[in-house]
């Protein structure tokens, strides 16, 4: 009934408010409840990062949905693709220990960029950590970032890369949808 480009643009535009408001509600509650760094600027940076990560994940979902022919295929493909991105994104493996031949997975992972950006936003302001256990603790936020192999200088790069992933996945989704529509 509609051209593919009109349908796709309208679908994306209609979804944008949802994928901005819901992450903002989530981070507004969670940020202060968890006890993150109590600064309004740090909060808004964290909120922007969460919105970008959400939209990158949604964009990937668009891509998988448009590329797969059926719902069952999309449901089978999504975890198969997401788990390696999560694994090499810094949640389960320290980013400094990822083998060189898997580094490309980290570069297309919104988990990596979001994780590093949120960690930098949280820890760069912490000048002292009180350690109440006998286990050795990092002394300050910079030590935490070094331990995680995250770099404070990468904050802007991480944010830009989240935008790049959003655009790239949405363009790929549009191309996949256009190809699927042309076949029919």
From TrEMBL:
Residues 1-123 form the ABC-2 type transporter transmembrane domain. The chain crosses the membrane at residues 12-34, 40-64, 73-93, 159-179. GO terms for molecular function: ABC-type transporter activity. It is found in: Membrane. GO terms for cellular component: plasma membrane. The keyword NAD does not apply. Keywords: Membrane, Transmembrane, Transmembrane helix, Transport. InterPro entries: ABC2_TM, ABCG_transporters. It is a multi-pass membrane protein. The keyword Transmembrane helix applies. It holds the Pfam family ABC2_membrane. Its main location: membrane. This is ABC-2 type transporter transmembrane domain-containing protein.
């Amino acid at each position: 009934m509609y051209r593919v480009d009109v349908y796709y643009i309208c679908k994306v535009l209609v979804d944008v408010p949802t994928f901005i408001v819901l992450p903002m509600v989530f981070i507004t509650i969670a940020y202060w409840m968890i006890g993150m760094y109590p600064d309004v600027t740090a909060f808004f940076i964290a909120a922007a990062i969460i919105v970008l990560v959400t939209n990158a994940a949604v964009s990937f979902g668009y891509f998988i949905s448009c590329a797969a022919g059926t719902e069952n295929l999309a449901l089978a493909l999504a975890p198969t693709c997401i788990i390696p991105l999560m694994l090499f994104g810094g949640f389960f493996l320290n980013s400094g220990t990822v083998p060189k031949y898997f580094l490309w997975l980290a570069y297309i992972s919104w988990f990596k960029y979001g994780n590093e950006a949120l960690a930098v936003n949280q820890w760069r302001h912490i000048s002292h950590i009180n350690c109440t256990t006998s286990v050795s603790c990092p002394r300050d936020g910079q030590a935490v970032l070094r331990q995680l192999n995250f770099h404070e200088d990468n904050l802007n790069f991480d944010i830009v890369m989240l935008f790049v992933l959003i655009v790239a996945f949405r363009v790929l989704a549009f191309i996949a949808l256009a190809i699927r529509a042309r076949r029919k």
